[in-house]
Fold these 2 entries.
Entry 1:
Amino acid sequence: MLRIDKLMLAAALSCAALAGGARADGTVEVLHWWTSGGEAKAVGELKQAFEAEGGKWIDSPIAGGGGDAAMTALRARVMAGNPPTAVQLKGPGIQEWAEQGALNDVQDVAEVGNWDSVLPPALAKIMKYEGKYVAAPVNIHRVDWIWASPEALKKAGVEAMPTTWEEFNAAADKLQDAGLIALAHGGQPWQDATLFETVVLGIGGADFYRKALVELDDAALRSDTMIASFDQLRKLRSYVDPNFSGRDWNLATGMVMRGEAGFQIMGDWAKGEFLAAGKVPGEDFLCASTPGNGFILNSDSFTFFKVSGEDNLKGQKVLARLIMSPEFQKVFNLAKGSIPARTDVPLDDFDICAKRSHEDLLAAIENDTLVPSMAHEMAVPRSVRGEFLDLVTQFFNSDMSSQDATTRLADAVQRAM
Amino acid sequence: MQSGSRLSARLERRLPQLVVSPLFAVSLFFVYGFILWTAYISFTKSGVMPNYTFDGLAQYQRLWNTPRWYVAIRNLFVFTALFISISLAIGILLAVLLDQRVRIEGVIRTIYLYPMALSFIVTGTVWKWILNPGLGIERLVRQAGFENFTFDWLVNPDYAIYTVVMAAVWQSSGYAMALFLAGLRSVDDEVLKAAAIDGAGPWRTYTGIVLPMLRPVFLSTVIILAHLAIKSFDLVIALTGGGPGYATDMPATFMYAFAFQRSELGVAAASATMMLMTVVAIIVPYLYSELRKTAG
Amino acid sequence: MVSGIKLENVHKSFGGNEVIKGIDLEIEPGEFVVLVGPSGCGKSTLLNMIAGLETLGSGHIHIGGNIVDDIPPRDRDIAMVFQSYALYPTKTVRENITFGMQTRRIPKDLQKSAVEEFSTLLQIHAYLDRKPGQLSGGQRQRVAMGRALVRKPEVFLFDEPLSNLDAKLRIEMRTEIKKLHQRLGKTIVYVTHDQIEAMTLASRIAVMDNGHVRQFADPTTIYEHPVDLFVAGFMGSPPMNMLPGCLRRPDGRPVVEAPAGGGADALHFPLPDRLAARLDQPDGHQVVLGLRPETIFRAGSELPGEDRFTLNRPVSVVEPTGPDTMIVFEIGETELIARVRPEDAAEPGTPFEFEVDMAKAKLFDAKTGLHL
Amino acid sequence: MKERRISGIVQRRGPRHVLMRGLLFAILLLFCAYYLVPLVVMISTSLKSLAEIREGSLLSLPQTLDFSAWTKAWSAACVGVRCDGLAPYVWNSVLMTVPAVAISTFLGALNGYALTKWRFPGADWIFALVLFGAFIPFQVVLLPMARTLGFLGLAGTVPGLILVHSVYGLAFTTLFFRNFFIGVSNGIVQAAMVDGAGFFGIFFRVVLPMSIPAIVVTVIWQFTQIWNDFLFGVAFTIGDSNPVTVALNNVVNTSTGVKQYNVDMAAAIIAGLPTLAVYVIAGAYFVRGLSAGAIKG
C-alpha cells in the first residue's frame, strides 16, 4: 500500500516537473561564482523567485579566484556562440563586454520599474551602456569597513573605534604591545588592494580617490598624497602577522572573531561570516567605517548576454524584473550581508551595521563622496586594475619605498591605458 | 571484376597514409591552426575578446615593458632547472635503491608513484597547509621544541618559488623513478653479473656501467619533465596563486591572468607566442635527434 | 699454482622450488669440466654459484682449497664469459677489457701491457677503440674472452659462450677455446646444452638433469658407459636407439625379446657374454636395449665379428648427412636409426638387411633406468 | 614485476653490509613519508570534526573518527544552489573520460602502427608534427577551440569535451605506441602479410593483442590526464554536466562562508580516488609497460 502511494507520488512529481517544463515562463542559465554559505543561499532565493514565476533555471556555478575561472568559461562560451543568459559581472567589465556587442539591453523592464529613480546615480551609470540598462544590480557592498574584536580591544585598552589613521595606528600599537595581532589580513592581491584603496580614501579624501583611482589622473598618481598613502600602507603592513601570505579573508575574519586579532579591514561580506558564527553586531564584534568620510561602493550585478530564442529572451526580462523587485532585494541582502541596491527598500529587518551602511550611503550620495571600488572592479578596467594589484601587492610583499611605489604605479597605469 | 580488385589493391597500398591523414589533419588544424591564430592575435588590438584589427608589435612592447613578465620568465628558468634536476636526482636515487632486492618494492613503488595520479586541484589545499608557517611544518617543528625553527618560504617572495619546486618534485619525481626503474630492469642481467665478476662495487656498477646505458631514458625523462614544467599551471594557482605578490608567476599563469582576468588578450597572445617559441627551441633538437636515430 | 674446485652437497632453491638437489663434484686443478644437460637442469645456476653470482642454499664450495661460500665474486679469482657476452655497451673495447683491472687498482702500465698481450692473441687489436655495438657477433665473443683472460685468474667460467654464434664460427671458436686451455692450463668450468661441444672440449663431463649430476666422467666413458638411460640418450647425435623389451633365456642364454609388430614373430637380440655374465635378473624382466646408430649398419658392410645380429626391416626414411646416411626403420612401435655408408643406402619402402654389433649394445633396467 | 636474477650475488656480510642495508631502508622510508604526508593529512583531516580542526594542529591525527564529512561530500555538499554532493559529477567525469580514453588510445595505437610498421615517405615528419602538439599549453588553445566547438555545434556538450580530450591526447598516445612498435620485429608483420592478412587484419589480430603493455601505459596516462583536467571542463561544459574537478573546485573554493575543511578534504579525495585506484591497481603493469619499450628515447 505504502509502496503504491510512493510510486504514485513519484509519478505525479515527475509529471509535474514535465508540465512545469512545458509551461515554463522563460529559461535562464545563470553563470555565477556564489557557491557557498550565505551567497549560495542568496542565489537560491533568486532561483526560487524565478521558478515561482514558472521559469526554468539552469545553474552554472564556477567558483574560485573571485570569478577568474568563471570569466574564463564566459569567454569560451561567448566565443562558442552560446553565452549564458545572465552572468555575475560587474563594474567596467559590463562596458567592456557591451562594447563587444555581446550584451542584450533590458531597458523596457527598467523603464517600467523606474530603475533610474531608485538606484544611486553612480551605480546606475555603471549598469548602462549607451543609455540603456544592460545589467541589474542585486546589492551594494561597502568596502571601507573596519571590523573589530571588542574583547581584544579591551585587553589592549583601546576604548573607541579609530576615526583617523593616526588613531588607528595608535590603537594598533597598543594591540601589538598587548601581544595581539593588530590587523588580521590575508595576503592575496585583492585584499592588499582593498587595504590600499581604503587608505587612499582616508588620506586623500573622496575627490583625490576619484582622481587617482577612477580617472587615473597622472598628476594625482604621482602626488605626495599618494606617497603618504603608501606610507600608511607600509604602516599597516607592520601590523600584520607573519603568516598572512595567501590566507583567505574568512580565515582573517576568524582571527578577529576569536579575539586573536584586533581589527580587520574588509568589505561587509565579512559581516556574513560573523553572523554565520552566531555573533551579534555591537556585542561580539564592532563595525565602523575606515577613516575618511566616504563610501567605497562595490556592487554585484547580473549582466544580460546576447541570447536568442523567445524562451531565453523572456526569461532574461523576467529575471531582470525579479532582481530589481524590492522583495527580492530585501531577501537577497539579508542572506548575503550587504544592503539593497535600491535605496527605497525599508531596512527594518536589517542589523545595525547594515542600517549604518545605508545611512552613510545616502549621505555619501548627498555629499558626492560615493566612490567606486578599484579593488573590486567597480572603477577601472580589469587591465588597469591588474596593474594596481601587481604593484600594491609587490609593495606589500617587499621593502619598496613609497616614492618608488608611486612612480612605478603611475608608469604601470600609463602602460595599461 | 579485375579492375575492381586492382582498385582495392591500390587502396590497400595507400591505406596507411589514409589512416594517418586524419591524425595529420587534426594536428594541422587543432595545433598549428590554433598557434597561427594565437600568433595573429598577438599582433592585434584584442582586449576582452579577439579583435582582428592589426596593431603591429604594440602588444610585444607592452609585454616586454611589464615587470611581471620578467619575473615569470625568470621563474620559469629557475623552476625548470631545479625541477628537472631534482626530479632526475631523486628519480635515479630511488630507482637504484629500489633495485636492491627490496622485498616490499611493490608497495613502496606505488607510494612513490601515486602523487602523479592526483591533480593539484586535489592536493593544492593540503600543500598550502603543510608549507604555511602558521599551520604546517614550521609550527610542528616549533611545537616539538625548536622554537627558532623557521620555514616560511611559502610567504617569502624570494623563496616562494622553491616551495613550488618542492610540490612539483613531489608530484613528478615518482614518475621519473618509474621511468628509471623500467630502464634499470631492461638492462641485461648478465652485464650486471659481468660487473660483479669484474669486481665493481654497487657505486661503480651504477655510475660506470648502468647509468650510462640509460642515456635514452634520461633523454625522454627530461623531455617529459620539461613539458610538465612549461605547462605548470594548476600547481602555481593552487599553491601560491602566483604570490606572494606575483613572485611565483610563471608564463602559463601570466598568460592566463592577462587573457582571462585582465581582458588583455593581445598581451596574453604575445606571451603565448613567446612561450611557444621557447618550446620550439627545446623540442626541435629533441625531435631532430629522434628522427635521425630512427630514420636509418 | 692452479686452483681446483670442490662442491660439497650443494643445494639451492628458488622460492620453494629446488633446482639444485645436492651436488658433490671435485674438479682437479687445470681440468676442463663441461656441465651439460637440457635447459632447466640447473647447470647455469650451479655455474653462477661457483662464480658467486648466486648464493648457496646449503653445502660448501671450495676454490683453490678455500671455502668461498661467502666470498663475493670479485675475490674468488675467477673470470667469466657470458652467453650474451655482456659487454658494457657504453665503453670501448679497450675499456671493457681493462674495467676489471681498474676496479682492482692495477697500475696503468700493467693494464696496458695486458691489453697488448691479449688483443694480439685474440686478434682484436684492430678495433680496440670501437664500441661493442659496432662489432660483429664473433668479434664481440673475442672481446668477451679478452675481458676474461686479461686478469689471468685461476679459474675460468663459461656460460654457453658459443650459443649465439653461427655454426661455422662456433666450431672455430670451439677450437680456439681448447687451444687457450692447453696453453694456459687453467681450470675451466664450461656450461653448454650442446653435447658435441661437451665431447670435444671436456677433459671431464658432468651430465646434469633435474638438479642432479647423473654422471661425471671423461667423454669416452660417458659415451661408452653411460650410467643410465638419461645420460645415454642425452649424449650422442643422433641419439642412442632405445628399444624396450624383456629379458628371456630361451636356451639358457639371455636374450632381449622385442615385439616386431605387424603380426611378425618377436625378435630375440642375443646378449654378448660379457653382459650376459653380469645379469641376474629373472626372465621377463623389463629392460631397454640401447643401440647407438653407428652400431647398426648394412649387413656385410663391416668386417665380420662376434656378437652380430641381423634383421630385415623395411626402410622408412633416408637422411643423407654427407659422410654417412641415416636410415630410419621401425621395430614394433619404436623408431630406430642406423648409420650406414652413403653407398649402402636404399630407397624408402624397400626391405633392408641390418646388422647389429651386439658387443657394443647397452642394457638398462626399464624401471630404474640404470645401466645393467 | 620481473624477478631480478642478479639478486643472488654473494656479498660480504658484516657490520658494513648491515649498515648500508639500514641506510637503504632509511632513505626509502624517508621518501615514503615525503610522498605520503599530503595524503595522510588529507585523510586525517577528512575524518575530523570541524571543531577539532579549528582547535588542533592541521597535521595532528584525529582523536575520534567522524565519517560525516565523507557522506556530506559524496551526497550533500553544495555546488552552487544544488546540494547533491559530488556523486552526480563523478558520473559526468566517467561519461567523459571513458570514451575519450578509449578513442585516443585506439587512434594512437592505429597511428603508431601505421607510422612504424608501414613506413611511407614523410612518416617521420608527420610524427614530429604530431608530437609537437603534446607540448602546447592548453590555455593557448582555449579560445580558438571554443570557437571551433561552437561552429561544430558541440559547445557545452559532453561529446564536445570528448572531442577536445581525444584531439589533445593523440600526440601522447601516438608517441607511446610508436615507441613501443619500433621495438616490435617487422618480421611479425611480414609473416602476417604472407599469411594474407591486410592492414587492418594485421592490426587487430596480430599487433593489438601483443601491445598490452603499451595499452596499459597509455590508458593510465590518458585516464589520469583527462580525469584531472579542469581547464577544458570549466570552459566547455555547462552547470550540471560539469566534470568532478570543476564541482570539487566549486566545493573547495568558496569565496565566502565558513570553510568546511573536512568536507573539502573528503571531496578532494573522492575526486582523486579513481585515478588513485588506477595507479594502485595497475601500477605494477605501468612500470612493466614502460620497460617494454614505451619509453625508449
Entry 2:
Amino acid sequence: MENYFLILIGTVFVNNIVLAKILGLCPFMGVSKKLEAAIGMGMATTFVLTLASGASYLVNHYLLGSELAYLRTLSFIIVIASIVQFTEMFIHKTSPVLYQVLGIYLPLITTNCAVLGIPLLNVQENHDFIQSLFFGFGGAVGFALVLTTFAAMRERLEGADVPLPFKGSAIAMVTAGLMSIASMGFSGLVK
Amino acid sequence: MLNALLVMIGLAVALGAVLGFASLKFKVEGNPLVEKVDAILPQIQCGQCGFPGCKPYAEAIASGKAAINLCAPGGEAVMKRLADLLGVEPQPLAAEAARPKPKQVALIDEQICIGCTLCFQACPVDAIVGAAKQVHTVLDSECTGCELCLPPCPVDCITMVPVEEGLNGWKWNYPVYPISDDARKDVEVTS
Amino acid sequence: MRTLHPFHGGIHPPEHKSQSTRQGIAAAPLPARLVVPLRQHNGNPARPVVAVGDHVLKGQMIGAPEGFISAAVHAPASGRVMAIEMQPIPHPSGLPDVSVVLEPDGEERWIERQAIDYRAIDPADLRNRLRDAGVVGLGGAVFPSHIKLDASGLETLVINAAECEPYITCDDMLMRERAAEVVQGIAIMQHVMAAREVLIGIEDNKPEAISAMQAACQGSGFEVVTVPTLYPSGSAKQLIKLLTGKEVPSGALAPQVGVQCFNVATAYTIHRAVNHGEPVISRIVTLTGNMEEPRNYEVLIGTPVGELVKVAKPRADTSGYLMGGPMMGLPLTDPGVPVVKATNCIIATSAELFPPPPRAMPCIRCTRCAQACPADLQPQELFWFAKAKNFAKAQEYQLFDCIECGCCNYVCPSHIPLVQFYRFAKSEIHAQERDRKASERARERHEFREFRLEREKQEKAAKHAAKAAQAAASPDGGSGDEAAAKKAAIQAAIDRAKAKKAAVTPQNVDDLPPEAQAKIDEIEERRTHARESAGQAAAVQKSDEGQGAS
Amino acid sequence: MNSPLVAEKTAVNFIMLKVLAALLPAIAAYVYFFGPAILVSIALASVTALASEAAVLHLRHYPLRVYLTDGSALVTAWLLALSIPPLAPWWLIVVGTLFAILVAKHLYGGLGNNLFNPAMVGFAALMISFPSHMTHWTAPDVLAHSHWSFAQQMDFMFGGISPADSKLDAVTMATPLDTLKTQLHLERTVAEIQSSPIFSTLSGKGTEIIALLYLLGGLFLWQQRIISWHIPASFLAAMFGLAGLFYLYDPVHYASPLFHLFAGGTMLGAFFIATDYVTSPTTPLGKLIFGAGIGVCAYVIRVLGGYPDGIAFAVLFLNSAVPLIDAYTQPRVFGHAGKWFNGRKE
C-alpha cells in the first residue's frame, strides 16, 4: 500500500513527468491557453495514459516476454495509437466543443512522448501490473495538475503587460522553466 | 520470427476490431459546432468572406476549411471570439477584412429610384420594401449595411450613410490609463 | 433597538456636509429660461404634447409618458414654449437630447390643482396619476415610481434617507424642515403597497433629521432606524440588507424578497402630488463645494446650472461643476445643462478641493478594493479582465453586480480609474449584446428569405407544371381557327395529358429531387420563351413530353 | 475627469516603505549577531535591483521616477539579501538580484504582472546553481571560533580573500536546520543534537531573536492593514500542525513544532514573502489554502527533502498554483445564492 502511495506522490510531485522528466511538452505548451481545454486534455491524457500503462504491461508481459523485447516500442505505439483513436471517437461523440478545443492535440497524444515514456519507464523499473497502473495514473495526474495550473497562469498572463518580444509562447516557456525550478525543491523526497 | 509476425498480426486484428466497433458505436451525425460558430458571426450576410452568407462560412470554419479571420463586419472582436471557441491562436484580420467600417445603413434616393426591384432581390435580409415600378425604401432597423444592394442598382441611387451615435448606443471610451511614457503605446492602448 | 445586518466593505470619505446645512432651504430665483429635457427618467422619454409658441401654465404637462416605463414631464413655470429642440443634458456622453425650452412669464400661474383622496381610489388609478405627475425616484436612479409601487402585500417598506455621499445634504434638510410632509408621503406608499412595516434608514451623522423624523413619525408606526455612517449605505440593495438582512438577488427586484425601497425625497413628491395635486416641477438641490454661500435651494427643474450656481457665489478659482456627489457624480462639461429630477447636488470643483489623481500605477493585487467592495466583488479581477478587454470573463466574475459606487477607486493605492474600466466594459458588453440581438434578427430574416425564395421557387414550379398541363391541353394555343379540328385536337390532347399525368405526376410533382426540379425549371423557362413564338409550340411540347417521360 | 473624484491618501510606495520599515528591527538584530556585512549585502542588492530596473524601464519607455520610487524593487532586494548567507560573495548577490528583477519581474511586465515572487526566484536560482555558496552560513558572533573584522569581511565578499590566520570554515557553521538534518542521518536523536551550543530555547542562538523580530514586524504590518492575517496564520498553523504530528509520532527523530516555527526562513516567509500581493491569491479562502500549502510543502522539503530549507521552493510551487486557486475560490457575490466556481454556479 505504502509502495503505491509513494509511486503516486513520486510521479505527481517529485518526478513530475513535465517538470522533472521534461516529457509531454507539446500538449503542455499547446493546450494550455484555456483552463477548460487544459482540464479536458488532462482528463483525456489521464484516461489514455492509465489505459496505455495497463495495456502495454499486458502486451509486454504476456505477448512479448523477453524474447520479443525488440518489438516493444513498435507494439506500444500501436496500442497507444489505438487507445488514442478510441478516445478521440469517444470525445467527438460526447463533447464536440472539447473535441474542437483539443483539436490537433488529441491525435497528438499518440506522439506525446509522455504516453510512450511512461510504459517504457514501467518496463525499465520492473513494475508489476498494479504498479504500472499507479505509475501511469500518477504520471498522468501529475501531467494534468501541471497542465491545469499552467493554463490558469497563462490565462492570467493574457492581461499582463509582457514586453512585446516575450509575449505569447516565449513567456510561457519562461514560466514553465520557473515552475520547473519550483518543483526541484521536491527532489530528494522520494528516491 | 514467426512469433513476432503472429504477435503483430494478432495485435492489429484485435485493436482493429475494437476501433471498428467504436467507430460504429460513437458515430457522429452532423457537426454541432456549426451552430456555435454561426451564433458568433454577425449575420450581415455580406459575403465578403468569400462564402455566400454567414452560415456557409460557419460551416467552412467548423470543418476547418476556412480561416477565422475573414469576417470584415465582425472585425477583431468576432475573430477573437472564434479563436476562443475553437481554441486557436488569434490571427490578424485578412487584408480584405481589416478595413474597419463605421456602422452604416443603405439609403435609397427616392428622386432617382426607378422601382426596378433589383435591389430587394439582392438584399439578404429583406430590408428593402417596395414593388415593381414603385419607389423602394430601406428599413433602417433591419438593414445590416452589407452593401450588397449597391452593385445591382442600375441608376446608382443607393448610398450608404453612417449611423449617428445616439444616447442609446453611446459607449464609454477605454479609460486613460498611462502605464508607460511611450506615446505610441498609449495610442495603441486607448484606441 | 433593531439589529442591523452590515453589508461587506464600505468606506468613510470625509463628509463635508456641515457647510451646506447652516442655513435652511431657500427658493432659487426664477431663471430667464428653462430647459426641460423629455428624458429625465429611466425608460422611454416623454412625448412632447405642446407646440412651439404655446403658452403653458405652471405644472402643465408638456411631455406625456410614452409606454409603461415612462413618466410625464411638466412645465416648471408658466410661460411660453420657445423651442422643442436638442439641448445639452446631464449625461456622461455630453450628447444633447430633445428638450422643451420655456421662457417664464413671471406670473407663476398654476394649473388647477386637485388633491386626491388616495384612500378612496383604486391603487392602479393612483399609480397612473403618479405617472402623470412625473413622480420618479429622486435618489438618483430616477426610475418611475408608479412601477415600483406596483407591489402589494409587502413585508417591509424601506425609506432611504441614508444620504451617504459626501457633500450632499438635500435629503437631510428636507427631513429637518418638512418631516411631517415626508411622513404623509410615506403613508401613501404604505397604503398603496400594503406594507407591513416601514423602516426609515438615516445615517447617524444627521441627528437633527433623525429627531425631526422621529417626532413626525409619532403614532404612525413607522420606525426611524439610525444606521452607522458608511458609504454606500444609501445604495438601495445595501440599505435593504442593512435594515432587514435580506439580499435582493442579483438581477432581481426588491419586491421578490418582500421589500421595496424609496428615496425620502420621492416620498415628499408623492405627498405633493397626491395631497396637493402638484406634479414634480422642482426639487431640493444642494449647492456646495467651492462656494462662498453653500446652501440647499428649492430649484425648478430645467434651471440651467450655470445660472443657478450664481446664488451660492462660486469662488474665483472654481474649475467646473459636478452634478451629484464626488463618489458617483457627473462632472458637467457644459454649464448650460439644466437641473433635472436626478440632480440632488451641484458641487463647484477646484484643483484644491478635488486634486487630479496621481499617475496611475499597475495593479498590485493588494485587494484593498475587494475589502471595500459593498457588492462582494473582486474588483482587481474585474479590472484585469476589463483592461485586457476580456469581457466574457469579466461577466463571469459578475461585472454586472457592480453598482459603480467608487469604493474600490477610492481605496486604490495605484490610483487606477477602476470605475471607468467597469463602465467601459459594461457599455461594451451592452453594445455586443445589441449587436448580437441585431444579428439574431438578421439571421432570422435571412433564413426566412431563403425559405421564402425556396417557397416561391416551388410555387413557380407548381404553377409551371399546371401551365404545362394546360399547354398540353391546347397544343396550338391561340393560333387555332378551325373550331372542330381544334376541339378534336384538344380532346385528344386532354386524353394524352391525362394519360401522361397518370404516368408521370407521382414522380415529378410529389417529391422533387433538386436535380429534377432544376431540370423542370429549365424546361419551363425554355417553354415560356418558346410559347411567345406560337409556331414552335408544338415541337417544343413534343420534346417536353419526351423528356418528361424519361 | 470622472467620478469618483476623491481618493484615500495612499500609494504603492507607502505600502512598500512600510514593509521595509517592518524589516528594520530584524535587520538591526542581524547586524548585532552577524556583524555589519549584511548591510553591505542589502546595499549591494538594492543598487543592483534599482539599476537593473532602471535599465528595463528605460528600454520600455516607462517613466523612471514613478517606478523606481514605488519601492517594490527595494523590497525584492532586501528580501533576497536577507535570505542568502551574510558572507555571500558580491557576485552571488548581484546575479541573484539580476535574475530576480530581470527574469522573474520584468519579463512578465514589471510591477503587478509577475507570477512568481522575484526574491524567491532569485534565491532558488542561486540555490540550484551555487549550492555550496548558498549553504555557508556565518556563525553568530557569540559562537564563532574566530572573529573577522568588518574590513576582513569586505575583503572576503569582494575579493574572496580570507584573512591569513583563519579559513572561511572558521567563521561559518551549519544552520540549526542543517545540523539537525545531517546529524539525524548519523542516527542521533533530536535531544542529543539540540544540546549542541548552536541551539537555544526556541531554535538557533541569535537566529531565534531575528525570527522573533520578523514576527514583530509582521504583526506591525498586520496592524497597519498592509497584510491580512490569512496567509501567515494558515502558513504557521499548517507548519505547526504538521510538525506537531510528526513530533507526537516520534519525538526522538522529529524536532518540536516550535523549533520549526522559529528556525530557518519560516517567520520571514510567513510575514514578508508569502504575503507578497502580486504573487499570492486575492480571495480569503484562497489565501488560507495558499498559506497552508506553503506550510506543508516547506515542512516536507526541509524535513524529508534534499534541501536544508524549503520556504523558497514551497513559495514558488504555490505561486504557480495562485491563478488556479483564485479561479476556484471566488467568494459569494452580493445577491447570488451559493458560491460559484470559475464563473459557474456550484
